[in-house]
Amino acid sequence: MLNLEPIKSRIAEATPGDWRWCGESLLAFTPGVTHLIISADVFEVLPGNAALLAESRTDITALVEEVERLRDKLLMYRHAIASHRGCRLPSQKTADRVLWAVLDA
C-alpha cells in the first residue's frame, strides 16, 4: 500500500499559496507575500510542463485527500461486511475481493 505520509510531508514543506506562472517565473501567492518558486529564464519551460508545475501542489493535495477518503470508505465497507455476516473483520485481501466483486457487478 502506498505510504501517503512522505507525500503529505513534502506538501506541507512546500511553499504554500496559489502557484501561478507570471512571465517566466513560477510564483506562489499568499496573503501579502509573493514567493518565487522557480525562474524559467535559465531554461525553457514548455506550456504543458508549466501547467503541470503550476497545478502540482493543488493536484497532489487533492489526490492524497481522495486516496484517504477512499481508504476510509473501504474500511467502512470492511466493517459493514463483518457486521452483516456477524463474523470477525475480514482480511484486507478478502474485503478487497468482495468490494471489487460488488463494484464490478
Total strand count, please? Answer: 3
* Oligomeric grouping of the chains: single chain
- Percent of residues in helices comes to 55-70%
Radius of gyration: 21 Å
Share of residues in strands: 15-25%
Cα shape: elongated
Instruction: Supply the helix-strand structural class.
Output: alpha+beta
Average pLDDT score: 83
Report strand order across the widest sheet: 1-2-3
- Runs with pLDDT <50, length 5+? none
Q: Which secondary structure elements does this structure contain, and how are they paired or packed?
A:
Blueprint: H1 5-13, E1 18-22, E2 25-30, E3 33-39, H2 47-85, H3 92-104
Antiparallel strand pairs: 1-2, 2-3
What characteristics describe this protein?
single chain; alpha+beta; 3 strands; 3-stranded antiparallel sheet; 105 residues
Structure report:
This protein is α+β, with helices and mostly antiparallel strands. The protein has one domain. The protein is 58% helix and 17% strand. The protein is built from 3 helices and 3 strands; from the N terminus they run αβββαα. It has helices at residues 5-13, 47-85, 92-104, and strands spanning 18-22, 25-30, 33-39. The chain has a 3-stranded antiparallel β-sheet with strand order 1-2-3. A hairpin with a 2-residue loop joins strand 2 and strand 3. It starts with a helix and ends with a helix. The relative contact order is 0.10. The mean pLDDT is 83.
